[in-house]
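Z., the sequence and structure:
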Amino acid sequence: MGGSAGKTGKTIRKDVAIRKYRRGDFKHYVDLLLLNSQTEYGHIGRVEVSHALQIMDKDWIWVAEVGGKAVGYATAVPEKGTLHMIWLDVHPDHQRTGIGSLLLVEVVKAGKSFGLGPLTVEVMDKNEMGINFYFKHGFRKKVWVDNYYHNGSSAFVMVKDI
């Protein structure tokens, strides 16, 4: 995958396009959510995920594409002056390549442009990769919520000032 070194010495992805959600993204997004969220949401199926996605404000959904193919999504919801990130999902074949970081940058930019903050997200307490990702991006653990997920798993609410 292409890229060049930026000021930090990290590779900047030039092969990734971040864009707003389009109607044709629906099936791919539902498929990715179901693929990545079986641990947290194993009890829900295509109908429930489809319904949740249908009622979301599409202006707050971003899509990451590589070679014209959607490989990641981020979804946020403004709530009482804050911004709550509902989902940030990247296809397993594209994880740890910077795509999640690029999506997060777009969410933060949107929050700032609307004067929202802080940005919050829930992460399963056993999801070390996710927790470390958010730490790397300036989040901190705000609170632990016992039995947050339907399967009885707990979560950390993580927060970032934007």
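Residues 34 and 44 are 8 Å apart (CA to CA). The longest helix spans residues 99-113.

Let me know what you think.
H.
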